[in-house]
């Protein structure tokens, strides 16, 4: 089992013994929805996020704001705003203390594993989002904007049972983790963790750009990072370079690049040991990363380590598994002092994970509608 430690001064460090004896926790099997391993309720500040969940908000890609610039607050409004933020911060701290003192660990939570009940709940939340957005029978419409991510009606359909999670769904949850947790000033070493969105990873992996690979990546942020989450979409051939095809692969896997020991940990929910094409993809990813000297540094070669994890029972849930694994690893990194990267004891409920993703989208869409 691979273990890290969180030092109060240095942040994330390698454990003195990288392979340690398995703890009693790692030996016990636990059922999880993955997504709500992260304490969203304690950290998601609804009011302060409204400006970035505005349906009229536009990023640089979308062009100028529809209704002009944000209204300027006067002195009285600024004082009230600061006071409200202090009140919300106090309430969030209290909620976190209650959560920690209750002793209710994520492993002890009851996860509904009734597939029929879960499917009905997912359908109900899906309907609530569409009713709340009042989109009618339009085939495609933008539901809301969350920072750099635009969420559309079609994105909801991809979360439904038996559908394939899209790269935009992954990007949205990654952006939420980034904004709610990693950029939160109360989380001291959030900058040492980087979540790369699928489009960046696939462009980096598949585009023929000779040796100028670093120009694709957010190099400045990565230079401060120690751990990089990379969603990789396996494709039939690593020779496909058409940009419109790079996110239409066959299977999502999560790669966690540990820059402290130059290891690429691969979490694959549908692993086939004899799949040479998938291994070629990982080797190509490592070769390109190796050429990013300002990020990887040194001459130590990046090792590929395949991690044992729960396996999906169909061909549709790889994207859900990727997000569930990301959330449980992020929870351990952010809220535990001794961080175990081995998740072989965790059994995931893909339907429960889809429900949690849908519920998060409902929260964000509600914030946008109520603004």
UniProtKB/TrEMBL annotation:
Tell me where on the tree of life, at the top rank, the source sits.
Eukaryota
Annotated region (Disordered), positions in chain: 55-111
Q: Which residues form the Ubiquitin-like protease family profile domain?
A: 149-329
User: Gene3D superfamilies, alphabetically?
Assistant: Adenoviral Proteinase, Chain A
Q: Which UniProt keywords apply?
A: Hydrolase, Protease, Thiol protease
Example GO molecular function: cysteine-type peptidase activity
* Gene Ontology biological process terms in this record: protein deneddylation; proteolysis
Q: Which SUPFAM superfamilies does this UniProt record tie to the protein? A: Cysteine proteinases
Q: Where is the composition biased (Basic residues)?
A: 84-96
Similarity annotation: Belongs to the peptidase C48 family.
PANTHER family reported for this sequence: SENTRIN-SPECIFIC PROTEASE 8 (PTHR46468:SF1)
Name the UniProt record assigns to this protein: Piso0_000696 protein
């Amino acid at each position: 089992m691979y273990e890290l430690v969180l030092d109060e001064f240095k942040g994330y460090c390698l454990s003195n013994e990288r392979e340690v004896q398995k703890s009693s926790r790692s030996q016990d099997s636990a059922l999880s929805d993955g997504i709500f391993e992260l304490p969203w309720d304690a950290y998601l500040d609804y009011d302060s996020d409204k400006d970035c969940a505005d349906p009229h908000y536009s990023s640089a890609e979308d062009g100028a704001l529809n209704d002009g610039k944000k209204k300027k607050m006067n002195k009285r409004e600024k004082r009230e705003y600061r006071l409200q933020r202090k009140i919300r911060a106090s309430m969030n701290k209290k909620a976190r203390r209650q959560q920690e003192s209750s002793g209710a660990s994520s492993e002890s939570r009851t996860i509904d594993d009734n597939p029929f009940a879960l499917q009905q709940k997912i359908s109900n939340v899906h309907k609530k989002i569409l009713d709340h957005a009042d989109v009618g029978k339009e085939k495609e419409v933008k539901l809301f904007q969350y920072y750099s991510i635009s969420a559309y009606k079609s994105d909801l359909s991809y979360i439904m049972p038996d559908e394939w999670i899209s790269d935009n769904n992954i990007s949205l949850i990654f952006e939420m983790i980034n904004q709610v947790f990693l950029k939160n000033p109360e989380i001291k070493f959030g900058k040492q963790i980087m979540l790369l969105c699928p489009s960046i990873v696939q462009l980096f992996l598949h585009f023929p750009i000779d040796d100028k690979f670093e120009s694709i990546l957010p190099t400045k942020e990565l230079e401060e990072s120690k751990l990089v989450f990379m969603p990789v979409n396996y494709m039939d051939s690593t020779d496909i370079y058409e940009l419109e095809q790079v996110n239409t692969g066959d299977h999502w896997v999560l790669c966690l690049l540990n820059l402290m020991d130059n290891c690429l940990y691969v979490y694959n929910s549908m692993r086939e040991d004899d799949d040479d094409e998938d291994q070629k993809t990982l080797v190509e990813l490592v070769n390109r990363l190796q050429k990013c000297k300002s990020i990887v540094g040194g001459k130590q070669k990046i090792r590929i380590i395949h991690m044992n994890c729960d396996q999906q029972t169909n061909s549709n849930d790889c994207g859900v598994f990727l997000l569930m694994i990301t959330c449980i690893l992020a929870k351990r990194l952010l809220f535990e002092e001794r961080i175990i990267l081995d998740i072989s004891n965790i059994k995931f409920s893909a339907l429960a994970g889809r429900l949690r993703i849908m519920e998060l989208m409902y929260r964000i869409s509600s914030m946008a509608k109520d603004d």
